[in-house]
Amino acid sequence: MFCLLCDSEEKLYDGLCKKCFLREYKPVEVPEFATFKVCSHCGATQKHDKWVQTGYYDDEIINDAIQKDIKIDPKLEDVEITTEIINNRGTVYECMLHIYGKVIDEYIEKDYPIEVKVEKSVCPDCSKFYSGYYEAVIQLRADERKLTDEEIQKADEFISNEIQRLCKTNKLAYVVERIVLKEGVDYQIGSYNSAHKIAVNLQKQFGGTVKESRKIVGHDKSRSRDLYRTWLSVRIPSFNRGDFIEYEDTPYEVEKIGSHKITVKNLKKGEEEHITWKQADDIRKVKTADDIQETTITNITPNEIQILDPDNYMTVDLKLNDNTRKLNIGEQIKVIKIKDRIYIL
Ligand SMILES: [Zn+2]
Ligand SMILES: [Zn+2]
């Protein structure tokens, strides 16, 4: 048997002597050019199957683009590939590909020029943004009343700040639309995770409760799973600090609205207590600070205090508690009337 190219009688590889084989051997199939995608909107680049935010096209992305588009001969072992950017003209990179590896027990090294072109595209996140896609709706509501203009303005500012913070790490953190309704304001948010964080923080800011419900809105065939949209209802309380509420048949004055609980004064006992937002469904607002009245103490006995009803000036006897024990006859005091009973504040 002879080498097909030089008639040598040495050991043959694919019909060629070692020298001819190594000369003719192509360790890699190099296309005319390789490509990588860049989002025209946000500049993200596609790396393998993922879109990544990078500062700009770097060597690693060029290297990945080349590796994706070349085919390495399976006979080549111990392969090492490096790429070098020789020149950059706009969206075209002229590169040199260095291949190093072992074939038929000989180490070879070959260089190939290759062009890498930037392909303008739209990343999935931008495509969602431009199509108005949203995963969640924050429904801002007030319990048993309308939201005040001040509350709406505060919530708008709060949400806008939250979005600016969250969109640095989540491109779906955007508001598609803000819709003013009779019952409140709806904010359509691109990302469920961001919407959830905002809803939780809104509750911390305004008090009240957050309730979540979700519905199937479609089906993703490519991943064979249902697509959901979530509604996050943030319900801020009907009452404010200084209002009077009723909870489990007991009247309270609201002293402080916190993120986890409401600090209240029990008007029967004159003591401070707490009601958590989980229990808050049963709270009813009964009076406001505007309903506070003034009256006079007419008598004090060891167990009772006598005052005048501010509406009809009839005397009323009330049991003394720790709060009222320190008062004196003739003193002017503030009272609130709830369900025809008078409580000293
Ligand atoms: Zn030969
Ligand atoms: Zn993009």
From TrEMBL:
Residues 3-236 form the Nmd3 N-terminal domain. Signal peptide: none annotated. Transmembrane segments: none annotated. InterPro entries: NA-bd_OB-fold, Nmd3, Nmd3_N. Coiled coil: none annotated. One of its GO terms (molecular function) is ribosomal large subunit binding. It comes from the Archaea. GO terms for cellular component: cytoplasm. PANTHER family: 60S RIBOSOMAL EXPORT PROTEIN NMD3, NONSENSE-MEDIATED MRNA DECAY PROTEIN 3. This is NMD3 family protein.
